[in-house]
Amino acid sequence: MTTTHEWPHLFAAGAADTPVLLLLHGTGGTEHDLLPLVERLAPGAGHLAPRGPVQEHGSNRWFRRFGEGVFDVDDVVRRAGELAAFVGWARDHYGIGDRPLVAVGFSNGANIALATALLHPDAVRDAVAFSGMYPLEGRAVEADLSGSSIALFNGQSDAMAPIDSVVRVGSILESRGAEVDRNVREGGHGIHPAEVDGAAAWIAAHTRKVLDD
Fold it and tell me: Is 146 a catalytic residue?
């Protein structure tokens, strides 16, 4: 387990009237990968970008897997708990307070964002998942997700995040009370520029009320 305060990460406070984006990279990435998206998603926003704690053949990941698309669900659960603890630590350590925090994940990062949102809504209530899928196959989700908002952005022909798994995660989120915005485009794995625009509009709409209150 990664000790919370020793977890490699980047932080920038951003403007006080903006959200903080929790940036979660894909397999083989680092805490630097999603930084170029911050200004496109939420101009002036803060960011909190940790590094995935698991190594797979020298590549950073968020949790173990047995093969492509076959996750070690016990490890997913454990790592989601660690990420939730890290978010709680960072809120206190960096004085984030009650500012909105939006998880933004790509691929493996999207999957840990979804797992944490499903299991620990107190830590991750709002998330944007690019090319993510259902990460908790065979595990019951019992958390009350009313008040949670999740945006899913997926490619129709994505072999790495099959559309049936995308439909499943959306349905489970909704069954637990979350608001789900589903966006499916042509093509496969990746982040399309139009998805970034859609995510930016979604983030603005879902954080404006909190910031105005």
Answer: no
Interatomic CA distance for residues 61 and 24, integer angstroms: 10
Question: What CATH number is associated with residue 49?
Answer: 3.40.50.1820
> How far is residue 123's CA from residue 129's CA, in Å, rounded to a whole number?
16
Domain of 165, in residue numbers: 4-212
Assess contact for 154 and 168: CB atoms under 8 A. Answer: no
Phi and psi angles of residue 14, each rounded to the nearest 5 degrees, phi first: 70, -170
Is 171 known to be catalytic?
Answer: no
| Residue labelled with tokens 């047995």 | 66
Q: Is 181 annotated as catalytic?
A: no
Q: Is 189 exposed, middle or buried (0-12, 13-18, 19+ CB in 10 A)?
A: middle
* Active-site choice (107, 148, 149, 165): 107
* pLDDT given at position 1: 47
- pLDDT value at residue 127: 98
Tell me what pLDDT residue 28 has: 95
- 74 closest CA partner among 160, 135, 158: 135
Please pick, among 9, 72, 181, 189, the residue that the annotation labels catalytic.
189
Say what the pLDDT of residue 182 is. 98
Q: What is the tally of structural domains in the chain?
A: 1
